[in-house]
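Attaching the record inline, Q. Sequence:
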Amino acid sequence: MNVYIHVEIALRELDSKLMLAVVAASRGHDVLVSDISALMTGVQSGALAPGIFHTKSLTPGEKKIARHQALIDRGFSITSIDEEGGMIDHGYDTFAKVRYSEKTVGQASAIFGWGAEDTDTLKRIYSGFSSRIHQTGSPRVDLWRPRFSPYWRPPKAMPAKPYLLVSSNMGAANSMRPFHEEIRLHRQAGYFQRDPEMFSMLFGVTADDYRMTLAFIEAVRYLASLNNDYDIVFRPHPVENMEAWKVYLEDISNVHVIREGSITAWVNNAFAVMHNGCTTALEATISGKPVVTYLPFKQEYARDIPNELGERVDSVEALSEVVSGLFRARQSPGRGEQEQSLPESVSKKMYVDGADLAAEKIVRVWEKLDNGECFRPNNWRRFHWWHLTILKLKGGAASTLRKAFPRIFGLAKENHKFPPMDASDIRERVSRLQQALGLKEPLECKLLSERTVLIRSKRTRR
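Structure, as predicted:
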């Protein structure tokens, strides 16, 4: 069966989607993990035969609806798990109405839920399609569990000293895009039409984020000034401008602003995680890592669920005391990370099955969707040597024109969401996933372009 997996934000999604690919490939399926440009180029040219098209959301924008309909017309089946997740607020109704619609749910052959709350809410609101909605859990959560700790190698930029991980979720104030551009994109995507209160809410969230940005700068400086025993790794959210944080926190020798690799590797190697309103708090809770929630002022738009977790402190003095205690206790006997019962607020959001992984459940649903068309062979030579080469040349030509004539063609844009992949790194990740999953099926892992990788079984290769 042909499976095409769309990656938007590599730091957030790539490892979990590689795991999905490894599980599927070990069962004899051909899996392409890629950005949307290469996938659609292959589809439109006819080089890619029909199969499962697994995407990161079903947001009802006109462009996405048209894209999915074109895929359906060609014999593809659309499946999705929303990578935003809706994990940080109680309830799911608003998220379900903003991120989905009758049209996009109707286009999907299968929708996968992170947990009971999103699955049940989607089935209630879109009751006509309830049989297509499955509570599988998320492959991202699979990788947070202690079982997969051996998969995560220590990050290359990890400091020599033990470190506190500070996870930032202040993208509204520190976004790569100007605020007015965010408003424009939300309007174009129809968010304000689906949720009229969102326009004013974005201003409130941004105001909160600016205040929280200053509070975190002051807190990090305070912690750094009081100790020389541990370092601080400050991790901006993938949508945040990392250079802004480097300016805010410059000239502090024991503070490192880093966004290398998946945050899970940084969580696993930290002695504790500090945050405000960040999904990383849920990840750390599931992985058994100490969480410190910093609440320096009353927020108008707080992210309730993560802010209820771990040690909650409201001053730099209390923060320092708690962090110092966790640092001293980091090597206490029996303190190692282990799976434990989760708070109800987390367990209803994230389904963690003791028997099967979410990735295994998703692949089994895919296999039931096969309509007889999904095993048609792909023209890999045509896709690899012609279409991806043309795509790269077009991108290179556009970049050259932007650099030469910026006033006419605009400035060259770096793909911050999905930087180029490295072939040896991807092969190593696939090998580690096979080991963690206990899979012995020999797999071919071939980088077709800097954002496209093919994974398939060597035994069933067509």
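The longest strand covers residues 443-449. The two ends are 11 Å apart (CA to CA).

More tomorrow.
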